[in-house]
Amino acid sequence: MLKIAWSRMYAHALPEGHRFPMAKYDLLPEQLLYEGTITDANLFAPGPLPEKFIVDTHDPVYWQRLRQLELTSSEIRKTGFPLSEELVNREIVIMNGTVQAALFALEYGIGMNIAGGTHHAFTDRGEGFCLLNDIAIAANYLLNYKGIHKVLVVDLDVHQGNGTAQIFRNEPRVFTFSMHCGHNYPFHKEHSDLDIPLAEGTDDKAYLTLLNNTLPRLLDEVEPEFVFFQSGVDVLATDKLGKLGMTIAGCKERDRLVLELCKRHNLPVAVSMGGGYSKQIAHIVEAHANTFRLAQQIWF
After folding, report:
1. What angle do CA 153, 155, 158 make, to 5 degrees?
2. What range defines the domain where residue 181 resides?
3. Residue 17 scores a pLDDT above 70
C-alpha cells in the first residue's frame, strides 16, 4: 500500500503571509482523495521526530539554538520565515514524515511525504525555507539504524540541493546528484557528487534527454540500496522562482523516468515534494499530484 505522510501542521503552522503557495499541502491530499487516487488509508500523520535523530545530522549547538528560538536576525532572515515555536514543531514533524516514508519504502517499495525536500538546510544553519534537512536526516537514519550501506539522492528541484551536498560531502555512503538551474538560488553552490547546472529556459525535450542519459548510468555506477527523490515542481515554466521551461506533462515524464527506474532496479524510494511556486495554485497541485498518481500506477 502506498503510504503518504501528511499533517495539517504542514500548511497551518506557517506564519501569515507565507501560506501561498503552501496551501498546496492541504489542497494536494484533497485532490488525490477526491479523484480516487488514494483513500484515507494511504495517509498517515507523523509525530515529532525524536531529538536523537536530528543531532545525528545537525550540529547539536545549532539544534539547541533553533529549538530555543535563539537564532540571530540574520540567520532568521536567511531562512525566509519568521521564527516561532510552531514553525520549529512543524519542521520536526516534517522530518519524521520523511523518516517514516523511508521505512514504508523499505516495506512497500515506495513511501512519500506531501512536504519535505528541505535541501537548503545545512549541518549548522537553515536557508531558503528550510530549517532542518529531511532527506539527510532520513538517509542517516537508514545508514545508522537500518543496515543500508549506500544511498543515492536524486534532487530534481530547480534549485541546487546545497545543504544536502554540504552535509554529505565527506560521506562516501551517500551519493548526491542535483540537476538544477545554474543561474538561480543558491548563488553560491556547494559541490554535490554530481551537479548538472541547466541553462535558463531548458525545455522538456532537453531536460528529459539529459536525465535519461544520466540517471540509468548513475544507478549502475553508484549501486545504491536506497533512493531519495526530491521531486520539486518549480522546474515548470510557470514557476515564479524557477527559470526553466518545462510543462506539466514534461514534469510528469521526469517523475515517471525516475520512479520506473527505481521500480525496475528493485530500489526502494522515498519521495519528498520540494518546491513549487507557480502563480496559479492549480498548476502546482496538478504537477505534484502526478507524482502520486505515478506511484500508484507503477507500484500498486
Report:
1. 170
2. 3-299
3. no
